[in-house]
Structure prediction request, 296 residues.
Amino acid sequence: MIIKKANPCGFCSGVKGAITKVINLIEDPNIEKPLYILGYLVHNRFINDALKAKDIKIITEEDIFQIKKGTIVLTAHGTPNKTIDLIKSLNLNLVDATCPKVKHIHKQIEKYLEDNYQVLFLGVKNHPETNAIISNYNVSLITLDDLSFPKEKSKLVLISQSTLSYLDYQDVYKKLTALGHKIIEAETICNATYERQKAVIDAKDVDLVIVVGDPLSNNTKMLVLVAKKYNNINSIRIENIEDLNNYDLSKYKNILVTAGASTPSAIINEVFDILQTKFNQKPYKSLLKLEDYLKF
Ligand code: SF4
Prediction:
């Protein structure tokens, strides 16, 4: 059995930036405590557990009204402007950990709306990145499950959520142009997502892809999808090594391990190391500690 690790895989710059920002806030005596995060900083439950262990509270929008003092951190996925205005109106401290790649998408949308384009936003329904965008801007949401295209045929632009499959984006763009829509291609899938998917789509001589990541992580889901859809390889998602106790891997000869952009390096390395050195020693047990999940 050959076990390979995809390159790249795991943490992206946006996730590293968000974690670094929060760690710096924890350590900065000038930052008013307690620290709150409005939602999941990034989509990984181990990271969220590690942050909670550092006295950080994860809150929802409804909780904001109960807060009397402290600092609220906005997550990497972006936040609706009306929520930001609410926090400011309550005179609470605010720190923005939105990924610069997500901010770039907001800027692109603003630019096209100013030029009177109809913006079609290809995204995942109820994902926080999509929620912020459809709350802030007058865009038409289209999803891969519901490709309802507009009646207008011109002055259209197709913008995407940062973590979609780039081949799905191209597929939707081709469908729109085939229907006669004159549409600008403005794919805004981030580099980290693109590179992780490309490593899986280009993989050769692999009969199983193991994707390590959280069920809420969209780029993790996309890695599972693109392995099957665009490289015809069986793929499974696990959160950590212990999930592999449920699988019989003995029938596979070449396994590729990859991971979503919010999966801690420690989890990926543990999966890879155990598969390489203790493959036959089930049940697998994770020996990681909470602080390991925040390291990179
Ligand atoms: S996956 Fe892309 S958009 Fe999301 S945090 Fe990472 S770099 Fe930013």
